[in-house]
Design goal:
The complex is a heterodimer of chains A (112) and B (113). Chain A is an all-beta fold and 112 residues long. Chain A is 0% helix and 55% strand. The chains are: A mainly beta (112), B mainly beta (113).
Chain lengths: 112, 113
């Protein structure tokens, strides 16, 4: 089954404790992206990657890091999480010839 | 950049009626548009898309209309069913901002049986 998977689905952590949210897709897509979704603000792009070793900042990259060492994986790293990063995070992927993005199920993060 | 807005945060319709959800955008260079459906606890799910060289596209029970003159698009759902209850939002891809999508905040559709 074609899908985008994210882990963990739910995470509670404390300020300053580094964490990684994994994202993996099995559709051989070149393009992958991370979004955060907050009430009243819609989805906002954090980072995106056009291909392996190619990443770019989206609208809200501050406090986040990403890496793209393999085509299928695109982890999101919070080196020192803060409460304002409490949010619902989505990973998405698409092929370059079909811009439709396929989203993962989401990761709900609470930073205390 | 791009600014995307939806006209109504919530919409309630009777089962069997047609639903219309609207979206406005600001960047005249936007040339690809997608409507997503997001059910509670799930990720956004693709419904239908349209490119700027078209003004109408139909799918199964859904139609997207694009008016580039006023920078407005709409999603029409025919014979709305309880399973259509969800948040719907549009995504806009300008041709002049790299591969960056911009999303509306969403309209929560409630179907009354």
């Amino acid at each position: 089954e074609a899908q985008v998977t994210q882990n963990p689905r739910y995470l509670i952590t404390v300020t300053g404790k580094k964490l990684t949210v994994t994202c993996s897709q099995n559709m051989n897509h070149e393009y992958m992206s991370w979004y955060r979704q907050d009430p009243g603000l819609g989805l906002r792009q954090i980072y995106y990657s056009m291909n392996v070793e190619v990443t770019d900042k989206g609208d809200v990259p501050e406090g986040y890091k990403v890496s793209r060492k393999e085509k299928r994986n695109f982890p999101l790293i919070l080196e020192s999480p803060s409460p304002n990063q409490t949010s619902l995070y989505f990973c998405a992927s698409s092929s370059p010839f079909q811009e439709t993005q396929y989203f993962g199920p989401g990761t709900r993060l609470l930073v205390l | 950049g791009e600014s995307v807005g939806l006209h109504l945060p919530t919409l309630s319709v009777q089962e069997g009626d047609n639903s219309i959800i609207n979206c406005a955008y600001s960047n005249s260079a936007s040339d690809y548009f997608i409507w997503y459906k997001q059910e509670s606890g799930k990720g956004p799910q693709f419904i239908i898309d349209i490119r700027s060289n078209m003004d109408k596209r139909q799918g199964q029970r859904v139609t997207v209309l694009l008016n580039k003159t006023v920078k407005h698009l709409s999603l029409q759902i025919a014979a709305t069913q309880p399973g259509d209850s969800a948040v719907y939002f549009c995504a806009v891809l300008p041709s002049n901002t790299g591969n960056q999508f911009y999303f509306g905040t969403g309209t929560s559709l409630t179907v009354i049986p």
